[in-house]
Predict the 3D structure of the following.
Amino acid sequence: MGQNMNVRLVGAKYLVGFRASILRTLFVPYPYLHVSYPQEISSVELRQTQRVTVRTVCAVKNETLLSAEPIPAMIVDLSIGGALVESPEPLGLIGETVAIVTRLLVAKMEWYVSLPGIIRSVQHLEKASPPLYQYGVEFQAMKPDISLILHGFVHERVAISLTGMA
């Protein structure tokens, strides 16, 4: 009793966070807690595909070109629906299918995932040093376990940015 806790709740459209202390623990008719009324509540409306800035290394394989080798790249931002990827080399053309392989840290556990997608936009950033290609990739037909990991990653990152707690 009296122990402080950080509460994070994810609803259909909102992420809510607040600090509270445990007032009472009950086990009948099922385990639950009574917590103090929070002094401050933070909430954020989630977009259909909430984006988080990540800057994480990945490898991109163009699945349309069966002979293509994976190309090192960087995921700039990530959402449940897609990613913005930068690479010094061309990765493909609009409409081509790719697989983005990367490592995601969720709940302090490492997950290596392959995220299938379709290139929806391409920009050549010639003024960048070195020049870069920037790709908007929309995710497609993801396996349920990979989808769950991706949802956990994005929601955890949003919660951390909302509450400042890691």
User: Anything to note?
Assistant: Residues 4-46 form one domain.
